[in-house]
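Changelog excerpt

This revision adds worked examples to the README so contributors can see how folded entries look when concatenated. The first example is reproduced verbatim below.
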Amino acid sequence: MSDVLVLTRDVPHPPNAGDRIVTSGFVRGLAARDHAVHLLSYGGDGDRSRAAALSDPCETVRLVSDPGTSLPPRIRKLGNALLGRSDVMRMFYSDAYRRAAAEAIRAVSPDVVLAEHPYMGQVFLDREVKRAARAADARLVTNAHVVEYAAHEAYRDLVDDPLARLHLRHEIPKLRREELSVYRASDRTLVLGAEDRAELDPHVPGPVRRQRVGLDLDAYDPAPGADADGARLLFFGSYEWFPNEDAVRYFARRVFPEIRARRPDAEFVVAGRGAPDSVGALDDRPGVAVVGEVADLGSAVRDAAAVVAPLRVGGGTRLKVLESMAWGAPVVTTAPGFEGVEARPGEDLLVADAWSEFVDATVGLLSRPDRRERIGRNAREAVESTYSIDAAAAELVENLGIA
């Protein structure tokens, strides 16, 4: 049995968002293999009940006050720019967390310290943390989730807002420098997709290893929903992740009208927490309904004729695609949305290389209930064979060096 200290930005319970799902699967998979998992997370009094829910898979859970600032985002970004710091990385840094990480390493003496996201791995650059890790003979591992600077570079080429482009022009070089410094300070780096591995391999001296995510498949009931024979399209996600906002706005304005011209009964339902005003305003468009966070996401997925993931920025693994497949829903996505997903295009899901193909694929699915049923069934089987928590854990212990 090995001790693994996991550093997270958020308590990974309930597993209802991308990074929570990834971390929850890793924690539960390691615990099921009799490894002792210790969790150090940002969180406050309102998060203690969620932390308590992890008392079974985790030996210990400790919360550190969130480093959030009361400054408006534009002022915060300007301040970090003037100080020559990455705004993305700085949002998740605090001296309190750095000290807590060093204390946890000394107390636990872990075999591995696993940082979930590079901005949590910033502590690996601290002398006190490095000294504690050396004394414990602990291996430092960062799970990238997504290569942040590469995602921001892709977004920079798409954004129309001049101020946003100006911010990205100044932010990306700092983000790239600081993010790569974390991977270089790590003994190993994990990535969730082959594209991210290809990006990092030339820049990181330590091993960069591909890691699958693990889903609790019992939580995904693939039974068909009551309205699965209709013309409802669903998108869901957290809008804290900027590619989701970009995808929804572009699809609603540029792509969905073409679908609706051929299928006037088509609906586009936009679900997920944290939708900004720019997404909420889409509710006024014909056939579009912005519903916010839904209590039962599984029912919403099963009640849709198809899930659309019209992402223009890739990286990592798109959990919304894997979750939809686990629920047995047919998915239409783009090449960026397909990154990190191990499945067969045309059989387990549909992948469009051009927006005209996206429209054709979606309209075709709406017209063919038999094909929707077949793709949904194949999707569930693909996830079962590749993305169980046990399969992910088997790979993870190898990647962490604790097999």
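The second example, added in the same revision:
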Amino acid sequence: MTTKAKIGTRFRTGEECIESGRYQFDGYLDGTRTPTPHANEREIPLSRRERFPPIRSASKACWWRLAQHI
């Protein structure tokens, strides 16, 4: 039996994705929310076993929140 991550679960840049889904930017690891990520960086699709990316436009590690299972 596979356990799904719950909607709202947070993951950080560099972690391996355990659940395919759509993920939303949820702040930077340093506790800030600026600079604002570009529109195409605020929500991303990610497949199981991929790594959570940084926000490239800011060159910063961040938190990602599971918004939808796919």
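Reviewer comment on example two: Residues 10-69 form one domain. The chain has no helices and four strands.
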